[in-house]
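pls design
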């Protein structure tokens, strides 16, 4: 982070930085809520403001920094902060074993506990601590029980709440309870767009605008809380299709959505020159075929699909425990349960398709058919695709989330499995 520098702040960024200061018309608000588009500069300004406020108002107190996971919190918020604070005269001690960040300046030390709020069980992690303030990074990704438990821990006089997020479905509990009721709750609401980030060039802003489409464009570029509707991949067309080049390949993998009554869909992926091609598929619909197949029969189809290709890993629907065990028992392939966050996975697939990182071969007829039929369930009241024409869509999502976007976690697991 040594290259990080501030050029200037926009009006909204300055408001996020100074709303709590003496003389500000908002200093008596009990919290700050920043929502809007990606890359708008809201997270960095809010986190810096939170830390400065905590030192200006308190001595020797405890605070909480919350993300969906501690890993994502460190990546999005803690690491940038650690790069800035020394230049402002702060000394930091990152105690990773306890997920605590100690920050000291001029003899004053405050403690910042790091919490992950990924599911309903996360609320128990934050019970018992007394806080002078809490910051939620990407609060719309956290369960209500966790957020409310963290808020309940802020019992020190003068404590305040800090929220940031990108928009989600307008039926989301946080939108209904906090965004729409911000004024009534005494919270300052600042809505950001990419134009509120002076550090973002016109070229980079145009790149982001081209990257998203449909509901993700409305949320991540326009910063709107809108419901998902229509086709899940409305942009999908000839530009996202291509036959794989001839071997050799840099890497190969298989993604599997397992089914017995429902269709089973497996995709063979081959990487060359930085692009992953879904080169071939196995798609078995028991209703269409008039019979069901066993784990062993599906495994035989997997071997046939991978024949002649140096497949490094097979990623499988995590709920398919028996098929995962079947693959392990045969000992030929390294196998991993796939990451299965549906909406985040769909966004990752959209990004990868738009960026040209993955291509679908014309030979994958069932995948191409599903792309044209895969739609959002507008009656669900939340972001979910209809549970039909979704089997190839699921195996593609498993591949992108686990292999293409799996990062260090995927590579560590796959290497360990291959030993």
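designed seq:
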């Amino acid at each position: 982070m040594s290259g990080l520098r501030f050029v200037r702040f926009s009006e909204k960024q300055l408001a996020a930085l100074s709303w709590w200061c003496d003389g500000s018309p908002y200093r008596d608000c009990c919290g700050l809520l920043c929502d809007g588009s990606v890359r708008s500069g809201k997270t960095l300004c809010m986190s810096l403001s939170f830390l400065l406020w905590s030192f200006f108002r308190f001595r020797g107190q405890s605070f909480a920094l919350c993300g969906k996971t501690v890993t994502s919190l460190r990546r999005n918020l803690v690491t940038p902060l650690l790069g800035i604070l020394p230049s402002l005269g702060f000394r930091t001690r990152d105690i990773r074993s306890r997920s605590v960040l100690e920050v000291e300046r001029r003899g004053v030390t405050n403690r910042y506990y790091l919490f992950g709020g990924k599911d309903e069980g996360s609320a128990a992690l934050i019970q018992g601590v007394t806080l002078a303030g809490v910051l939620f990074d990407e609060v719309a990704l956290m369960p209500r029980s966790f957020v409310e438990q963290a808020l309940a821990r802020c019992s020190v006089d003068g404590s305040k709440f800090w929220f940031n997020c990108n928009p989600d479905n307008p039926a989301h509990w946080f939108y209904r309870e906090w965004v729409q009721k911000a004024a009534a709750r005494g919270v300052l609401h600042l809505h950001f767009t990419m134009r509120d980030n002076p550090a973002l060039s016109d070229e980079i802003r145009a790149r982001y605008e081209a990257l998203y489409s449909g509901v993700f464009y409305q949320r991540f570029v326009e910063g709107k809380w809108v419901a998902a509707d229509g086709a899940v991949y409305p942009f999908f067309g000839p530009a996202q299709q291509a036959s794989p080049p001839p071997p050799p390949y840099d890497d190969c993998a298989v993604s599997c959505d397992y089914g017995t009554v429902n269709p089973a869909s497996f995709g063979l992926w081959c990487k060359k020159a930085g692009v992953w091609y879904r080169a071939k598929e196995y798609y078995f619909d028991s209703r269409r075929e008039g019979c069901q197949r066993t784990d062993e029969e599906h495994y035989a189809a997997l071997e046939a699909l991978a024949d002649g290709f140096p497949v490094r890993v097979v990623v499988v629907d995590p709920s398919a425990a028996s098929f995962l065990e079947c693959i392990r028992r045969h000992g030929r392939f390294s196998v991993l349960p796939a990451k299965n966050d549906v909406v985040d996975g769909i966004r990752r697939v959209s990004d990868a398709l738009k960026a040209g990182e993955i291509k679908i071969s014309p030979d994958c007829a069932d995948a191409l058919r599903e792309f044209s039929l895969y739609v959002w369930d507008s009656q669900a009241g939340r972001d979910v695709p209809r549970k039909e024409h979704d089997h190839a869509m699921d195996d593609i999502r498993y591949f992108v989330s686990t292999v293409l976007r799996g990062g260090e976690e995927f590579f560590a697991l796959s290497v360990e499995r291959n030993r």
